[in-house]
């Protein structure tokens, strides 16, 4: 089967996030399907951008990665979530729209997936699918425009939000299949016109190959910090992932201030819009047991998580999480066998479901501090048992070979 996967932010192990499109596409390619990934030449979530002869793209570029054919379309660079990002989205979608006939001629798609986080790609995907006579699939990562309204405080009457709402309603009306990573979206989608018979839940997951055999050695600066913390008799707590406002890292730093005298070292490993500000806050408040590091390569994540005692993930207290959460980093934490402190109030809670840690209220430094103290006070054996429950849960429900088959089954497709 020929699959055209339209995802603005699609990445690959050599480029960085987003990883979900890559992992699903790679599994489909292994099944014998022909998968073409259509993505933008610039994305803020990638650690590296695709290049042509060492320079940013000025024309479309085709590249084969692990059995997937990537079609990179130029899009201007940007920072933050302002006009520059909107210009980037518009440029990408406009170029793909104009390339519709060429893509159909080359790919002859039988399934077209719109999967760019924002819903505006539905019109491009619908055009391709209709002209090709293909099945149209809409994949939901986050609920747009509800996410920027509730997380970023944008007005429902903002022109961009109104455009996104039109796109979301169009997607629910015209898609043949809707796949959601979030598990509690039924009422919301039905209220915007979706026939729930079209809806299928396929959450995030992990690649079991990355956790098999010998893992890459951890970068020396992070490894040294962990060794020194251990030598001081400290438990090591780690947050590994993007550093943005939705990750509630200020709550973790507030908790660190309450834990100044506790034998606990906190590591923040990652990048993002808030990294510089958080680093400055650590220094200004003399949080000497908090250390901030640049992101480690994805191949080193297993080694990082294997070396720590407790993994942390936090969320803001916002109503949108009533629809559920599907964080990649939590899947990594659980697959690594970490005991997890989860600061959340949401429609689902994988940590509680798996019994692999503690869940505490969000945006409560006191609750986070008490949770970290409680997990640090457990024996290594008790934390290990928690971690094993998490690993078993992920292996049963959240590996990409399992999820890729569920996705194709939702599309009514068979393995190649």
TrEMBL record:
Q: Give GO terms: molecular function aspect only.
A: glycosyltransferase activity
Location of the Glycosyltransferase subfamily 4-like N-terminal domain: 16-205
Q: Which InterPro entries match?
A: Glyco_trans_4-like_N
Q: Which keywords does this Swiss-Prot/TrEMBL entry list? A: Transferase
Question: Which CDD domains does this UniProt record tie to the protein?
Answer: GT4_WbuB-like
One Pfam entry name: Glyco_trans_1_4
Which PANTHER family did the record assign? GLYCOSYLTRANSFERASE, GLYCOSYLTRANSFERASE (GROUP I)
| Record's protein name | Glycosyl transferase group 1
Its taxonomic path starts at: Bacteria, Pseudomonadati, Pseudomonadota, Betaproteobacteria, Burkholderiales
């Amino acid at each position: 089967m020929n699959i055209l996967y339209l995802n603005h932010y699609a990445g690959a192990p050599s480029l960085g996030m987003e990883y979900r499109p890559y992992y699903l596409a790679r599994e489909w390619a292994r099944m014998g399907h022909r998968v073409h990934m259509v993505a933008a030449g610039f994305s803020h979530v990638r650690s590296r951008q695709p290049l042509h002869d060492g320079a940013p793209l000025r024309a479309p570029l085709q590249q084969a990665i692990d059995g997937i054919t990537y079609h990179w379309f130029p899009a201007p660079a940007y920072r933050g979530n302002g006009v520059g990002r909107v210009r980037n989205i518009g440029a990408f979608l406009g170029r793909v729209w104009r390339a519709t006939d060429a893509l159909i001629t080359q790919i002859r798609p039988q399934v077209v997936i719109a999967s760019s986080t924002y819903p505006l790609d539905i019109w491009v995907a619908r055009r391709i699918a209709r002209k090709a006579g293909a099945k149209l699939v809409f994949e939901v990562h986050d609920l747009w425009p509800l996410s920027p309204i509730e997380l970023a405080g944008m007005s429902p009457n903002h022109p961009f939000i109104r455009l996104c709402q039109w796109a979301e309603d169009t997607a629910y009306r015209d898609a043949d299949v809707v796949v959601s990573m979030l598990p509690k979206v039924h009422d919301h989608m039905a209220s915007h016109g979706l026939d729930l018979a079209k809806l299928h839940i396929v959450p995030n997951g992990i690649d079991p190959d990355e956790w098999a055999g010998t893992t890459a050695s951890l970068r020396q600066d992070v490894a040294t910090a962990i060794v020194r913390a251990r030598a001081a008799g400290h438990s090591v707590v780690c947050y590994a992932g993007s550093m943005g406002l939705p990750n509630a890292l200020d709550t973790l730093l507030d908790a660190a201030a309450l834990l100044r005298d506790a034998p606990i070292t906190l590591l923040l490993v990652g990048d993002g819009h808030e990294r510089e500000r958080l680093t400055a806050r650590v220094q200004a408040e003399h949080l000497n047991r908090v250390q901030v590091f640049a992101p480690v390569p994805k191949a080193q994540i297993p080694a990082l998580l294997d070396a720590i005692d407790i993994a942390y993930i936090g969320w803001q207290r916002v109503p949108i999480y009533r629809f559920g959460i599907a964080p990649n980093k939590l899947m990594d934490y659980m697959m690594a066998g970490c005991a997890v402190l989860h600061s959340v109030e949401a429609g689902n809670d994988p940590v509680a479901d798996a019994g692999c840690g503690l869940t505490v209220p969000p945006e409560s430094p006191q609750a986070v501090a008490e949770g970290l103290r409680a997990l640090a006070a457990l024996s290594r054996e008790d934390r290990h048992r928690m971690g094993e429950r998490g690993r078993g849960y992920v292996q049963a429900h959240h590996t990409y070979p399992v999820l890729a088959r569920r996705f194709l089954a939702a599309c009514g497709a068979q393995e190649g």
